[in-house]
Design goal:
153 residues, mainly alpha, 9 helices, 0% strand
């Protein structure tokens, strides 16, 4: 990973759309930034994060607008992945798998967060589980592909 790619990832983590703007993809960057603001405001995400960090999980759950909040993990991770890809990253085989699994598991975490840990902690926890599983699957698929190409068994 180059320093340019890492910079795009970090700006994408800070705010979706910023990585795209740094890559010169201005329309896409503005689109992602506007969508981020809309989802953030509609889901009450900032308050949900605040009360989750304060340990007031029940209050965070009550404030969360789950109809909007469930979009956030996939949108957020896609925005980061897209900025990284546009900066020349993600060209190795199956490189998208950890991000795809992380986004999926993070969304499932948000869906079930009313039951346990709240939307921030369960969503983040399952995001990292998904990244781990996606990375394991990616490595396995690369190994399998290597064996098939080199006729090894």
């Amino acid at each position: 990973m180059t320093s340019e790619q890492l910079e795009r990832i970090c700006w994408g983590v800070a705010l979706p759309g910023f990585g795209q703007l740094l890559n010169g993809k201005y329309i896409k960057g503005l689109f992602f930034t506007v969508v981020e603001v809309i989802i953030n405001l509609q889901s009450n995400l900032n308050e949900v994060i605040l009360y989750s960090f304060l340990g007031q999980i029940g209050h965070a759950i009550q404030l969360a607008n789950y109809d909007w909040l469930m979009f956030y993990p996939c949108f957020y991770i896609f925005s980061i992945w897209d900025a990284y890809k546009d900066a020349g990253g993600g060209t190795t085989k199956y490189a998208v798998l950890p991000c795809a699994f992380g986004a999926y598991f993070g969304t499932v975490g948000v869906m079930y967060s009313r039951v346990w840990l709240g939307p921030v902690w369960l969503g983040l926890g399952l995001f990292f589980v998904g990244m781990f599983i996606g990375n394991l699957l990616r490595k396995r698929m690369i190994r399998q592909n290597y064996r098939e190409t080199n006729h090894l068994q």
